[in-house]
Amino acid sequence: MKKFIIIAIVLIIAALGYYFFVYGKNGDDNPFEIDQITAEAFKGDLVVSIHSNGRVTPVQTVEIKSKASGEIIELAVDVGDYVNKGDLICRLDTTTVMNSYLQAKADLNVAQVTVKKRQREFERQKTLFEKDLLSEQELDNTELLLEQAKASLVRAEAAFSIAEEQLQDTEIRSPISGIVLQKQVEEGQIISSGVSTVTGGTLIMQIAEMDSVYVVAEVDETDIGQVETGQRVKVNADAYPDMNFEGRVQKIAPMATVEQNVTVFEVTTQIDNSEGFLKAGMNSSIEIITAEAYGAVLVPNDAIKDPEAVGYTGEIAQGEQKIGGEEGQKRPSREEMRERMKNMTPEEIAEFRKRRQEQMEAMADKKVVMVKREGEFVPQLVTVGKSNLDYTQVISGISIGDTVDATPVSLMMQQRAEMRERFERRSGSMGGLRKSE
Q1: CA 35, CA 38: separation in Å to the nearest integer?
Q2: pLDDT tens, position by position, 395-410
Q3: Tens-place pLDDT, residues 414-433
Q4: Among residues of the chain, what percentage have pLDDT more than 70?
Q5: Distance of CA 29 to CAs 24, 32, 117, 432, Å?
Q6: Cα 80 to Cα 100, 181, 209, 210, distances in angstroms
Q7: Is residue 279 within 8 Å of 287, Cβ to Cβ?
Q8: Which stretch of DSSP H or E encloses residue 61?
């Protein structure tokens, strides 16, 4: 008996000596301890956004053409000039058009005088007819001459109106307020009408409305589900890296396009450009704000864990009913649920699956955070909101200042595997020591 006690003491001393020899030299106080990353829940602003690149395009671009044909004798604006609606752009030679105008005006004057003369004759003839001094046929002839004069007056008025319009068409004016983007003609050049030729006439210049502009970006199909019209947008032009421009999502393309084997959707945003910095064709980076939360409780994303990933089996309330069991009960394991389902009728199984679906929907925003309570980390069910690449909003479950475990799940699993390997290695070493004794 005494010999057995001595052998046991020797084995314990040898084991302790081996332990401190192996781990004491490395300064590893606890070889089974997992490295833990902690963080504090804090109050902050959360912005969720999608980034892309885009190009500035005008909201409205108008091609200026002339209704009249002729030689350009004056160009009033140049590329880059700002014009108001109605401003003169260019003037054509009016020699031929002016002659037609003067002739039409003279014909109109003659027609007006003729009508007045025929009207007086008809009134005089009518008086004579009423006194039986004139035959009915003579009165009818006079009335016919009056109607013919009136018809000639209508034709003269129409001809004069056309001639007047043609004269006005020799002055081309801007239909919108905007910037002259391109000029295609020069003084002395003869242009063709845009309404009387098959080619559509000569393009004089392009004018674009630039008080607000479009920035058209391509958004990956994996992100397009987060984009909605009306969302706030921030734009940074390559030409002005220190300036930010703001606007809203205006339009989302209904059909995707494929660019270099990547499926994208065209998103059009409208940006305020009242100061005129943005130019047509500028490249820019665009940030679409898909969600915002101000003054929210925030924790690192690694602090948010799925209940199943961390083996959480606590109560999860859904109204007055506890998911997975009766009031106050723990959620049963999968093996227990399978055993229960074996004894269920088809109707009960259908009801169970319906309840399970409702429970899954109720759990959509439920996660687990390991929060420090009385010196120990305990699982806490939380309701999460918005999240970006770094942080997640916690709506309920923890408070500002709470210490949470922000160790990534992948790192935890890796450390556990390493710990298990160390444990097995030590156990094997201890077994070999006993065997040698």
Answers
A1: 10
A2: 888 889 888 888 876 6
A3: 666 666 666 666 665 555 54
A4: 75
A5: 7, 9, 126, 24
A6: 36, 6, 12, 11
A7: no
A8: strand 42-65
